[in-house]
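I hope you will forgive my troubling you with a question about protein structure. The full record is reproduced below for your convenience:

——
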Amino acid sequence: MAESTRLVDLVQRELDRFLADHHDRLQAISPDLDPFIEFSRALLSGGKRFRALFCYWGWQAVTGYDEFDPLAEPSEHPDLNTAVKASAALELFHAAALVHDDIMDNSDTRRGMPSAHRRFESLHAGAEWQGNGRHFGQSGALLLGDLLLGWSDELLDDGLRSLRSSDAAHSARAEFTRMRAEVTAGQYLDMLEEVSWRHGDDADSLERTRRVIVYKSAKYTVEAPLAIGGSLGGASLAQFAALRDFGLPLGVAYQLRDDVLGVFGDEHITGKPSGDDLREGKHTTLIAIARRRLPSPARRLLDELLGDPSLDQHQIEMLQTTIRDSGALADVEHLIADHVSEAVAALDGAPLSTAATREFRRLADSVASRES
């Protein structure tokens, strides 16, 4: 636990250093670019750091540093320096994905604060500039997301330069590149499912929602960071297999929990309005199961209301009750528990360090029981 806490501190320090350096570069172009740094700092100042943690522990799991000093400075250990920078690069990548995701979902908030496109829109309104403020907000956020995406590559490459093994560096870069392609594909599949599920075959709705889960979230939240960390440490084939066998089912559990929170979460904890996924029309596994279980009249009502951005609190609560009473919520809770159990079982006898295995079990519990 102390080592994870230390890692989070080191990642935040690396992000702060990186943004300070790039603030100077942007200032040299124009002070008008300050919002890029200001909004980036706001977005990167919080979060659970799951991707950073899984990257670091993936590295630790295969290097076997059970006696590693958690208070060591990265400069004292070149490979630790690389692991910290790769972990921070994943947080930059995640921030980019959040910015783009909020544009596509037309989300007003992120972590209890205005989303990036709303921040740019407010900038436009406050200065009383010409043109359409909404368009300016979305365009500014799109550019911010692209910038964060490029910065994640830059920070990763900076870290890989100090890695002593060129093979390990090449492997980590390949895993990062694969992750980027997969999450982009998954994001499109999620967007496609949102608009096309009414025209799809109900018989394969669960398979479609699972594919979205795997590629939009599960791989890039848990499996890919573990694989990137493992690559940095020169993982063997057996170690890669163990990391993936643990990571994929845990990543699925993570997204299933996210789907539950998107419908039933407490907005004071999640930072997003309760029932937001219902207003956005997210056709998740939770919704797919509910539609299978509901009688025709209730299913038609769900279909009619799902995706209506004007849903009021009474309608949200009615839909929540309908979904809960259908048994879909209980089914998804069982799925989460089953996937976490599958992930934890993969650690038994795995060729991974004792410290990492212990931390993986703790992180698995955090993923399953999180409230935001």
Summary: The chain has a mean pLDDT of 93. Residues 166-196 form the longest helix (31 residues). Residues 2-369 form a domain with the Farnesyl Diphosphate Synthase fold (CATH 1.10.600.10).
